[in-house]
Design a protein that fits this description.
The complex is a heterodimer. Chain A is mainly α. Helices cover about 80% and strands about 0% of the residues of chain A. In chain A, helix 2 crosses helix 12, helix 5 crosses helix 7 and helix 8 packs antiparallel against helix 9. By secondary structure, chain B is an alpha+beta fold. Chain B folds into two domains: about 220 residues, P-loop containing nucleotide triphosphate hydrolases (Rossmann fold); about 140 residues, OB fold (Dihydrolipoamide Acetyltransferase, E2P), CATH 2.40.50.100. In chain B, strands 6-7-8-3-9-10 form a six-stranded mixed β-sheet, with helices on both faces. In chain B, strands 13-12-11-14-20 form a five-stranded antiparallel β-sheet. The longest helix of chain B is centred in the middle third of the chain and has 18 residues. The chains are: A mainly alpha, B alpha+beta. Chains A and B meet through helix 8 and helix 9 of A and strand 6 and helix 2 of B.
Amino acid sequence: MSLVRWLKRHLVVIAGLLTLGYLLLPNVVVTVFSFNNPKGRFNYEWQQFSTEAWTDPCGVADLCGSLALSLQIAVWATLGATVLGTLIAFALVRYRFRARGAVNSLIFLPMAMPEVVMAASLLTLFLNMGAQLGFWTVLIAHIMFCLSFVVTAVKARVMSMDPKLEEAARDLYAGPLQTFVRVTLPIAAPGIVAGALLAFALSFDDFIITNFNAGATVTFPMFVWGSAQRGTPVQINVIGTGMFIVAVLIVLAGMVISGRRNRQKA
Amino acid sequence: MTNDNSGDVRLSGMSKTYGSFTAVHPLDLTVPQGSFFALLGASGCGKTTTLRMIAGLEEPTSGNVSLGDQDVTNLPPYKRPVNTVFQSYALFPHLDIFENVAFGLRRRGIKSVKKQVGEMLDLVQLGEQARKKPHQLSGGQQQRVAVARALINHPKVLLLDEPLGALDLKLRRQMQLELKRIQTEVGITFIHVTHDQEEAMTMADTVAVMNAGRVEQLGSPADLYENPQTTFVANFLGTSNLIEAEVDTKSGDEIVLRAGGGKLSLPAARCSAPTTTGGKVLVGVRPEKISLTHAEDAGGIPEDRNRITGKIADSSFIGVSTQYVIDSPVCPEFEVYAQNIDRDARLVPGAEVVLHWSPAHTFGLDATQDIDAGVETVGEEASA
């Protein structure tokens, strides 16, 4: 009887913990196996503890090269998509122009379309244009599909922004540029940052579109896919764990900063 | 008031149209330096558009805006020596109170703002809150920040767009006095837009009543109240009893009118309508100018007073006064506010009464107007 009551009282916590476990289990497996010392070429069975892969993460040919390329593409794609997406979002919210409705729905298409269709049609386009597949085609493709996510994130923020704030800035001696830099941009910033983070994550781990349009270029997800056919080096788990840690650290830093800001206010 | 006229606001032929809709008809208006000027009207009457054109946030379709001797019609808002207190305050949410107030100074390249901002925050009694963010302040405090943020720039003219609309009644009264005090202290021209006639009358030296994109009447609060020139002004500012009457005779300063069976006297100087014998005129009188006497005592009423008869339809006691609604043959809902000095116990709903008032308190209006113009309905009140 008391067990039932205890369960009832803690049901939410239990469900929450179970969900968290479900979400985190793959990461735990990846982390644990980054300390494995596999016998064969595949890192699927636990053998014995080893820090060998951690001491030499670039020990596998081409791994760190592909990682660097992926980071590079992700940074440029984020930058391109964020700048363009922010401008598009402002245009869509602030201005009434012809075909605004059409643009609004076209922007959403890349999010709704199956990736493989987009990948294939992009490839067709590039081949027809005679473009050489590689870094640039991948970058163009990434900016294209990140754009809709940035536009969505920024648009939501700009829509909730009081246009009177910009009028107040203009009234208080701020010219158009000052108004944008001092008022519009800081207030839209959370939306822009959210869009940029989303774009980075999407670009960094994209496989399908990249695989179609990369030619001989190999990004990190393509490298992982390729090596999975022949054998998985432990270093892949090391990089994966590293990425997870970096992401967690960023989130924690964000929480600490906003927590401190809130405490200052109070 | 000084002879300095650099704070004069002059609008000449200024109008604004949106497509086929005319928000403001060509408007000529001069607001003298140092005055507290109110633009009063219901929502959609063009008062806010007028204010925005003075601020430069809206471009006039025609006409000019001048400040002192300078034509500012083509200057962008950030180059006009004018600041606005917005209805929603429009405080910058990402900046603290100090930086909000310092915003205008910093944009004009002033480096040492600390002393000025401190003094300004003290003026509005918010020195303690300097490092808080706007959302942490109450409505009244935010309102004071908005005033401080505008005033610190020493504008030639301060524009206030319904600045007290979001405050509750008690706080609004307090802020009305506060704004009036600040205005007297700094001597800057204030142009205040409001739909609240009481607020306009409490605060402003001069009130312009706007209706449908036009200024209906302009004058001091007392002048507007006592001598309305149109039915809109008569009904929008306070309450007026309007009776349709016919001109009987005109003799020198006095016009005698026929209404129902009785006769009413109206000083010719207080009639803004053209009067021809036999022509129609609307006769107006304010509810508090009227005395109420029970029909049995009608003999005691002096001969020279205007009088009509009726029956009390409703009475409500509200402390300082009692408000009666009288059903009279000349006007079905005649309102009378009687001071509670000597309350006659016979004055209850159903009683036959005589209403009488001094002819000097009577005013005459053009009968071609809508008799109900400017009467506030419940719907308008809610949306305003």
